[in-house]
Amino acid sequence: MRQNPSFAMSDVGEIRRLIEQNPWVTLMSATDAGLVASHYAVMLDPERDDLTIVGHVGKPDDFIHDLGERELLVVVQGPHGYISPGWYGDAQSVPTWNFVSAHLSGVPELLTPEENLDVLERLVARFESGMPEPRLMWAPPNDPEFVRRLEKGTAGFRLTPTRVVGKRKLSQNKADEIVETVIVELEAGASPYADPRLSAEMRRDFETRKAAR
Fold first, then answer.
1. What pTM value is reported for the model?
2. Fold of 5-174
């Protein structure tokens, strides 16, 4: 991802927030057979306060990616959307796309079966927590034999990135009144491109920048 100093996102806390809120990521590897990509949910390593993530892939994706042997690129995609030049008023302008994203690169460490079980359990607990009647991994009708058989079909990994590129492109190069107009259009406009998540991210960034002036 090409970096632009105006849009750089380097704060670890902000990138952690991005990962926490957008756990469905793209995993990419350059292998002898060419580029390969997969999509899985990850989470921040609960034992660390940096950008270390843990997750799993279904077998044989571990062999397809040469997991643990090659560099892995993890693409985290946050809110994003089309920005119409019509929202800029009468000034000369072109369309663009606002987004928040981060790329984490490094060679992952393969987890032991017990570590992988712990990650699987935490992932299930996290996403089931919002359900009215959570179904946890070890709870009936599941039994230990079923859960351990499930684990054997996956490969867990831990990635402490050696390279991180974060980018937050949210109209920071536009005048305040234009940013406010774009936020309103995304928030409640009649456009098919209205997106409350993107408008909320823009508003958060805008208010933070104003407070820092």
1. 0.94
2. Pnp Oxidase; Chain A (2.30.110)
